[in-house]
Amino acid sequence: MATQPKTTGLTYENLQDFPDDNLRREIIDGELVVTSASVPRHQWVVAELVTQLVLYCHAHGGRAAPAPLDVYLAANNVVEPDVVHFRPETLVRVEEKYVRGPPDLVVEVSSPSTRRLELVRKRELYERFGVPEYWFVDLDADRIEVYRLESGRYGPPVLFGRRNSLQTPQAPGLTLTVDSLLGEP
């Protein structure tokens, strides 16, 4: 009789035992969270955002990358945000196998199956581990919710809709238009 794989009390080491099968596996507070591949629009938004951030990094330093990239916040908290950005001074967190510690900017792009995970569990996790800025790209509402850490907590989100531009202190001088990031409605 086969046993069910363990799904709680997990650490980063346990992630290494899973097959490479194109499923996104993350651990939040020791619990395994598995999500499947994203829809095309999700990936196009991720690609556009990474392109803009990489071009910015070429000119100003730092690094940006899309998933899959393990962000090791603690042994029992390892996630793969859709997009991460590091300022030049925080690149020391990038190690051979993963990133150890919070990125300066984390972006999650909505999917119907992951909405609650990203808006509640991951937002709380990013806040707890001191991610300075978290963006939730809401494809259903055609907007970007920006959460900025203030006194160790995220305040209410600043909402950016179509025809808006947004800037971030994590990439000084970068201006992104919401329409270019979201693509066709």
Question: What is the topological layout?
Answer:
Elements: H1 12-15, E1 24-28, E2 31-35, H2 40-60, E3 63-66, E4 71-74, E5 77-79, E6 83-86, E7 99-100, E8 105-109, H3 115-128, E9 133-138, E10 143-150, E11 153-154, E12 158-161, E13 165-167, E14 175-177, H4 178-182
Parallel strand pairs: 4-7, 8-9
Antiparallel strand pairs: 1-2, 3-6, 4-5, 6-8, 9-10, 10-11, 10-12, 13-14
Please provide a brief summary of the model:
With 185 residues, this protein is α+β, with helices and mostly antiparallel strands.
Low-pLDDT runs of 5+ residues are none
Q: Give the beta-strand count.
A: 14
Q: Specify the overall morphology.
A: globular
CATH architecture designation: Alpha-Beta Complex
Q: How many helical stretches? A: 4
Which CATH first-tier class would you pick?
A: Alpha Beta
CATH topology: tt1808, chain A
Binned strand content: 25-35%
